Each structure stands twice: as C-alpha cells, then as structure tokens.
Amino acid sequence: MDIHRLRVLRAVVADGSIRGAATSLGYTPSAISQHITALQRETGLTLVQRSGRSIEPTVAGRTVAAHAARVFERLAELESVVSDLRAGRVGALSVSYFASAGAVWIPPMVAALAREFPGLRLDLRLIELVGSDAGPPDVEIFVDGAQSGDTRGYRVRALLTEPYLAVVPKSSALASRAEIDLAELRDEAWVDNDVARGACRQMVLDACSTVGFSPAFHIETQDYPTAIKFVAEGMGITVIPRLGLGTLPESTVAVPIVNPTPRRGISVRVRDAVAEHPAVLRLLDLLDTHVARTTPSIA
Question: Potential cystine with 22: which of 17, 29, 66, 234 (Cβ 3.0-4.6 Å)?
Fold first, then answer.
C-alpha cells in the first residue's frame, strides 16, 4: 500500500471530511478524493461512504487508519534510528587487533568510544583467536605481512614502523650496553615468544639470517609477557617489538638492536562501507593519538 495514501486516509478520518483533510494537508478536495479512490482500489475495501452531503469513514476505513497510525509511529522510529546511525550513536562496529596492540591501544580507545557513543556496540576480536567462520571486520589493526584477510573493499594505511629490542637480565654483560649488534646474540639462550609462528617472529628470523645465524630457542612461550618473565628469572634473552615491552620487571632491561635492526610495520584497514561513520572516524583519530603517545621516539 502507498504510504502517502494512508496518510491521506488518516487525515480524512481525523477531520471527518474531504474538505477538512484537504485544508490540513494543503491539497485540493479533488486530490484528496483521488487518493482515497486509489487506496480503496488498492485495498479492495470501501474506506469511506456518503452520508447525506458529506462522507464518513466506514468501519474498514477506521480500522485501516488506526493500523496506519502504528505504521507511521514505526516510520518515525526508523527515521530516528537512521539519524542516530548517521551520527554514530547506535549500531555495531567490529574491530580486530593483534595482542600487543590490544594490550596498549585498545582499552583506552574503547573507553573513549563508550563514553562518546553510548549506543554503539563494539565487537572486539583478537586476531590470534579469530575463527575461520568469523565475518570480515569493520576495522583491523594488523602487522604487515600477517594473514589479515582480503584487503579488497578496504582502505589501508600505515600506522608506524617499530624496532625490536633485546630484553636481557640486568645480570647480563649486555645489560649495560647502549646498543647490541644482532650478531652478538648468536650464542645467547633465546626465549621464543610467538606460539603462532607468525609474521612478527619471522621478521626476527629473517634479520638473524642476514648475519649468518638462527636463534637457539631453549624455551618456547606463547606471548611477550610470559617470555619476559623467563628472562627476569635469568633463563635467557628474548627479542620483542617496542610495543610489546609493556612494563618490564626490575630485573630486566631492553637494549636496542643494530646491524641490522629488526623492524615490523603496523597498519590499519577500514571497510569502505563504514569509512565515513562518525564512530570509525573517531576511532581512527584516537588510534593516531595513542600511536603517537606510546611510540614517540620511533623514526
């Protein structure tokens, strides 16, 4: 049924006359009559009937008008929802990220978005744990070279390139150094920190290969914090990107690596369909702010 004709019927029922409805809607009486005739043909019902020199709604007409009122209420709600969606006040947004980004950047970003967009539902996904059946994210913070999914339909931009550092016990002779040549770590006992054997680990292996050795992993752990704890106990050294350092135990120190310096790139991709969403724009603004705050000295 034509929504506009339903609005005309409601006006006729409310005013009790064709002329009254025409005045309230700004139409001619003949235009109102044409709309009512068309709606009767559309519904197969007699919606109004003659009563002397005037007309009056039939029972069917009053019933249709009453139900139409609820339709218009829902339309008004829909218009409000659309307005809120345009303003980013409601809806859902899926954000994927890798572990060290999740530990440093995601909590303050989510807290700010929750305050500024209270009706927005955030679906947060740790890339390392995302199942193969998960749908594509709206926003993803990822390590360059990692399998982050198809970038078609996304806008991709670089966030930063950060160096890896050697985390060593303070009791080590390396702890007092301003920097360490990567080749000097050849004979150290290494603590592995990437159970996924992903891009971050491969970057370290590739850098070591360029100076002629492969790290001797004596202990395998699943993440950076656990690897650092083993170093704190004097079990070896581990090599970690700056973002993954967190707050180091007092018994450890992070020393820059040179000749060469392993580095990883971090980028963000945003689905084209949500790229102009106010909450997405705010999220990217927050992300840039936190990147700058947490990595001030990265060239």
Answer: 29
